[in-house]
Amino acid sequence: MVARLGNMSALKDFLSFLATVSGDISHITAPPFILAPQSLTQFPSYWAERPFLFTAAAHESDPEKRILLILKLYLASLQRQYYVGRTVKEGLKKPLNPYLGELFFAEFSDQDITDEKATGSKVRVIAEQVSHHPPTTACFLSADDDGVRAEAYSTQATTLCGTSIMIRQSGHAVLTVDKYNETYLLPLPDVNARSIISGVPWPELNGTYKILSSSGYTAEMRFVGKGFWGGERNCFEASVYRTTDKAENPRAIFTLSGSWSSKFTISNSKGKEVEVFDLSDPKNAPAPMSTRPVSEQNAWESQKAWARTFEAIRKADHGEVVKQKSKLENAQREMRKRERAEGRTWETMFFTKVDDSGEAVASEDVVESLLDQLDPAEASRLRGIHGRWRFAPEKEQRWISGNGSYRAPSPFG
C-alpha cells in the first residue's frame, strides 16, 4: 500500500512536469514503475500471433470475404497491441523506447495446435528500429508457405492532453496475398492512453479509418471511445463495401460491431449474424511466441540488450531499472557522438528508406493508387513524416550469409 501511494505521488509529480513541456514528449524519461518489460520493437509480433488469421485470405476464393478476413485480423490484433500484451483488467504499461538499430525476431506457428482453425501455418517476424529521431519502427511479417506477407513502418509522436497521453502514428502497413495478386493498405490508428493518474490506465482509439484492397473493396472502421460519464470501452463499428460505391451511405456487404478488446459480431448484408469473434475463446488464443534463447541472440536483439532492464522491471526494482536503462541509453548517445565526429551515417540492417521519386518507387504504384483513394490529409499521414520504409530481401540474405554478424560488437558500444 505504501509503495502504491509512493508510485501515485511520483506519477502526479511526473504529470505535473509533463504539463510544463510543449510538443512531442517521446524523449521524456518515464518513471520506472509504469514501464512494461518489453520494447516497442516487439509490437509487430501481435499481428502474427494468430497464424490462422494472418493466412486466412490466401485460402478464400471470394474477394468480399478476403477483405473481411483481413479486417478480422486487424481488429483481433488490437487488444494485445494497445494493452501491451496485458489483459484489459491489468490496464496498460509503457513499453521501452527502442534504441537505433534494435532488432526483434520471432516466429509463430499453429502446427502443433489440435483445433479446426489450425492451418499448419508459420509466420516469422522481423522488426527493426530504423530511426531514433524521430522514433520509427519498421517490420516484416511473412507466412512463406502460404504466400502472405506484410510490411509496415510507424513514426510516433507523443503529447500530453490533460491527464491522458495521445500517441499519434504516421505510416502504414501493406499486406500482400500472392495467390490473388492482391494488396491491402492498412492504417495505423492513433491511441489515447486514458486515466493515467488512476494507476490503471487504458487505451482508447478514436476516429474513422479505412482498409483498402486492390481488388476494389473497402473496410471502414469507426472507433468510439468511452464517454466521460460512462459507456463501454474500446467500442467500434465497421462495414465492408465496394470502393466504387461512392454514396454517402454505401451498401454494406458485411457489418461488424462490438469491442476490439473483448468480442465483436459480424453480420451479412441482410443483418443476419454470421459470427461472434470472442478474444477470450480458447480457440482464438494467440499461438506461443518462439524466439531463440537470449544466450544465443545477437547483441543487438531486443531481448538480449534489454535483458537486465526487463528483469529489474519484473522485480519492481526501480533503482536497478534506472541503472540498466541508463547504461544502454548513455552508450547509444556516445555511439551517435562518435558517428558524427567520424562523419558516418547509420545503416539499417533489414529495411531501406524509399525516396518519393525515381526508379526506387516503381513497385509502389499499387500502394500509391490506394493512397490516392483517401482524403489528402489522411493519405499524407499514411505516407509518413519520416519517409517510406520497405523490407529489403537482399539485406536479409546478407544477414543470413554473415550468420547474424553486425557492424558493431554491442549496442553498449
Automatic annotation (TrEMBL):
It holds the Pfam family Oxysterol_BP. InterPro entries: OSBP_sf, Oxysterol-bd, Oxysterol-bd_CS. GO terms for molecular function: oxysterol binding. It comes from the Eukaryota. One of its GO terms (cellular component) is cytosol. Belongs to the OSBP family. This is Uncharacterized protein. It comes from Exophiala bonariae.
